[in-house]
Amino acid sequence: MTDANCVYFIFTSINGGNDFVFIDGRTLPQGAKVSADVCIIGTGPAGITLARNIASDKVSVICIESGGMEPDVATQDLTKGDSVGLPYYPLETTRLRYFGGTTGHWGGYCRPLYPIDFEKRDWVPQSGWPISYLAVAEYYPAAQEICDLGPFDYALAGWQLPNFPPLPLGGNEVQTRLIQFSPPTRFNTKYRDEFTRSKRVTVYLNANVASIDASANAKEIVGLAVKTLSGNRFSVRARIYVLAAGGIENVRLLLASSQVTQHGLANDRDNVGRYFCEHMQLDSAAVLPLRQNTSYDLYQPETRHKPFEPVTPGSPIGLMGYLTFTDEAQRAGRILNYSANVQHSYWSDYFLHSDRTHDSADESRWQALGSAIATVWHNLKDAGSMAWERLPGKKSPGFYKIVTSQEQAPNRDSRVLLSNSTDALGIRRASLDWRLNELDRHTITHALRQIGSAFGSAGLARLQVPIDFAKDSWPAYIRGSWHHCGGTRMSESPDAGVVDSDCKVHGIGNLYVAGASVFPTNGHGNPTLTVVALALRMAAHIRGVLR
After folding, report:
1. Distances from the Cα of 510 to the Cαs of 236, 240, 281, in angstroms?
2. Which residues constitute the domain of residue 66?
3. Is position 452 within any domain?
4. Is residue 437 helix, strand or coil?
5. Rounded to an integer, what distance in angstroms lies between the CA atom of residue 490 and that of residue 510?
6. How do residues 30-85 score in pLDDT, each as one tens digit?
7. CA–CA separation, 253 and 225 (whole Å)
8. Per residue in 193-252, pLDDT tens?
């Protein structure tokens, strides 16, 4: 697998298993050549899941990891980039470059995609996956186990919730579904020692792919050029290559690999980087309860620390409720798959969005504060009334907020590009141009109206919506969820996307892409569980190809 004279270091299993080699790329001889049957770029949840499920006595696997076993500042700097669209967090805060990837600061939120997410919906242009829900669902139970979750059941009926009742909403359009919480599983910690039982996987640490090298006709990948921050260079050859470096980095590497094709690999139709989608995090309405005895406890993030028991025998797991719409309501309202948390709040959080602005860049922080103050001014009567009712000594049934986190409409103009600036390795940095469109506006406007009706008809609460989402500018305090989806979307033909139904890049015989960047649409749910399920599906496919 490697040159005989390379230098390496070893982590040894604490249970006495076979040694598993993690090789520091900085110690390889200059110009070294390494090879395996499969090369995986990235060791986040997708990369690690693939390596665990592809490697065997007959199939060797190399993983190329930008970082080491712990984060470091110089490597993390490689993730920096520009954000030129809607307000967004600094890119380097949204991903971690080390073994285990972004699971190192993952919150553990897990929920699947649903059948409607895979359908071609006539009111959602460019919707529809080239695979069915069942093609992914068969891998969800195994993904649950990998992420240390409970049974594959996200409906209320499957869980015992005697002390955490769901809201008794009026009508039959709005429903409560559940999120399961992983502990969260840190893939670095959990799977490093398990790898010691395999002699067919080698992880090269502190190693950065500088280019993915294609044949003269760009129909096949012939190798990888790898650089380290210390100046070492080496190359990798494999029969199959898998790009599993994260939603933005996957795009960046394809665009930057322009030695054979001027505009990057697989980009002759200008699809690489297009259709980037996120889940907005947007404080979108105040919930003002009308009675004292309504419990909102199920919907609070703190419930993750409560051990909920499944109805069928099984281990307890942390849960949280959220509001969403039935399939019938989505079709009738012609909306995207909407989701909302109902979180306990306070005046300055809701009106000034103090919890959102402190994590932003300086310029964005001031814009968000200005937007928040304008919101208070336009809602002065409600803002004053809500502040008065919550003064010390006043009896109040509490104050909650709707935090919208909905599916994003496929949008070709929402994209990842290359910046004009370069990183320490001379590779052009990413530039994120995140955009929303009119269907996104229609969805949140319709959803808040229906949620207000569901609360009001049941006599639970009234909603106070601070701006007109149908026509006002998106507020400066809008943020994403660090869910980098799209950019190398799955499609039946190369005219509509980048990878096929097996996640193989259109037109390139031995290059695959793993992770949320292949999602054609992103549903309303956190992507990690589906990323792991798709990685299991890809592993089964690649094993078949190599058989």
Report:
1. 14, 5, 37
2. 9-78+96-107+186-273+486-546
3. no
4. coil
5. 16
6. 999 999 999 999 999 999 999 999 999 899 999 999 999 999 999 999 999 999 99
7. 11
8. 877 666 789 999 999 999 999 999 999 999 999 999 999 999 999 999 999 999 999 999
State the pairing for strand pair 309-310/159-160: antiparallel
Q: What is the pLDDT of residue 206?
A: 98
- Share above pLDDT 90 across residues of the chain, in percent, rounded to a whole number: 82
* Cα–Cα distance, 129 to 119 (Å, whole number): 7
| Residue 324 DSSP class | E
Q: Is residue 72 part of a domain?
A: yes
Specify whether the CB–CB gap between 154 and 324 falls below 8 A.
Answer: no
The number of folded domains in the chain is 1
Residue 39 lies in a domain: yes
Q: What is the 3-state secondary structure (H, E, C) of 465-519?
A: CCCCCCCCCCCCCCECCCCCECCCCECCCCCCCCECCCCEECCCCCEEECCHHHC
CB-CB contact of 240 with 502 (8 Å): no
CATH number for the domain harbouring residue 204 = 3.50.50.60
| Best CA proximity match to 166, nearest among 151, 152, 181, 156 | 156
The whole-model pTM stands at 0.90
Question: Do 485 and 222 form a contact (C-beta atoms < 8 A)?
Answer: no
445 part of a folded domain = no
Amino acid at 395: K
